Structure formats: structure tokens, C-alpha cells
Amino acid sequence: MSVPVRAIVVDDSASNEAILSEELQRGGFEPELRRVASREEMEEALAQGEWDVVLSDLSTTHLGAFEALTLLKERDVDIPFLIVSEALGEETAIRAMKAGAQNCIPRASLVRLCPILERELREAQIRRSGAAPSARCRRASFGSARSRSRRPTRS
User: Fold this and answer.
1) The domain 3-149: what is its CATH number?
2) Residues 25-49: pLDDT tens digits?
3) pTM here?
């Protein structure tokens, strides 16, 4: 049985959108994709309904992954953001994840897309249900536990 998934695809290439659609179908998803290539198109897509995920190329002619991430933050939209790109080095991937992307997938490793998407959709559902503490709460409680467990050093 196919799992429906609504995705905004930040990419200026229709062929890349088709490749993502095929990979999602192979992985058991029933994709409904909306390709956007500019900030205006992404704003329009976000206004038209709820989406499950954003799949973004690192850079397109008018809208790149970092700008798309910023737009999601401005709109306070909490959906997984996955970067799928050919031009993806380790430093760029780290920078993207620090900026808020959940994962970065090189196009050469597209087989990883569906398992990563499944995990991120589960995590998003947990966040929405309120079953998991927020990241800020986890960091605060982790810091408290660490500070309680510290012992004074001896000279």
C-alpha cells in the first residue's frame, strides 16, 4: 500500500522533480509534488495547504536551500526539510543542518531518500503530537543532568 506524501520540491529542473517522484514511488510513497523555483512560488505553495516535507536542491536560479529554510522559519512551518543535491560537500551539509535542514542526501545516494523521509515524517508526527519534549527542553534537561553529575576536580 502506498503512503501519500505531499512535498514541495525546491528545484528549477522538471527532470529532477521526475527523478524524485520515481524514487518516492519505488520507496512505497504516493507523491504529490509541487515544484517551486522562486520565493514567490514557495510562498504561494505554503499558502495553499499543508505539506509533509520540503525536498530542496542546494541552489537553483532564484531560490536556494538556505533561502527556502529561512522562509519556513519565518512562517513557523515545522515540516522536514531535506536537501537533495549533486553539489553537496561535507562542509555545506554541516552548514545546512546547522541552519535547520534535517538531512542532506547526495543525488548519487538517492536510494537513502525514502528511509530518511520515513524517519523524518515519524519525528514530525511525534513533534506535532506533543509526545516528545522540545529541543530546547531536551537541551536544558541534558545540561542540568550534566551539571549535577560533575564532581569537583582535585588539585
Assistant:
1) 3.40.50.2300
2) 999 999 999 999 999 999 999 999 8
3) 0.81
